[in-house]
């Protein structure tokens, strides 16, 4: 006779997975910028404004986001990569 294994329902894990925070848009932006640096499309010491050439129509949004976090377009890309947490408090 075959044995039947019962999987115990774990309510806390389900709730935990449902309440996980979605990554801040700037985290995704930062990952993309890191990827561009790793692939040598841009250099860490390039100015942030050079990203405008790569982001095209989306650039106005990202420029606004960067400005809200205190970045100037002359700042090096490496400054964006050094941010550890994108808190909006």
| Low-confidence parts | none
**What structural class should be given to the helix and strand makeup?**
mainly alpha
> If helices are DSSP runs of H or I spanning 4 or more residues, what is the number of helices?
5
State the shape. Answer: globular
Beta-strand percentage? under 5%
Mean pLDDT, as a whole number? 83
Distance between the termini: 61 Å
Rg value: 20 Å
Q: How many β strands by DSSP? A: 0
Q: Main sheet, how many strands, which sense, barrel? A: none
The amount of helix comes to 40-55%
Order of helices and strands: HHHHH
InterPro entries: DUF4327
Organism: Aphanothece sacrum FPU1
Protein name: DUF4327 domain-containing protein
Describe what you observe in this structure.
The protein is mainly α. The chain has a domain of about 60 residues. Helices cover about 50% and strands about 0% of the residues. The chain is built from 5 helices and no strands. The protein is globular and about 30 Å long. The model has no long low-confidence stretch (mean pLDDT about 85). InterPro entries: DUF4327. Pfam families: DUF4327. This is DUF4327 domain-containing protein.
């Amino acid at each position: 006779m075959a044995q039947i294994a019962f999987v115990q329902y774990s309510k806390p894990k389900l709730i935990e997975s449902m309440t996980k925070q979605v990554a801040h848009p700037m985290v995704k932006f930062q990952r993309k910028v890191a990827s561009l640096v790793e692939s040598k499309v841009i250099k860490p010491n390039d100015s942030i404004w050079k990203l405008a050439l790569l982001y095209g129509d989306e650039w106005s949004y990202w420029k606004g986001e960067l400005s809200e976090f205190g970045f100037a377009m002359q700042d090096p890309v490496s400054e964006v990569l050094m941010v550890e947490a994108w808190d909006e408090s």
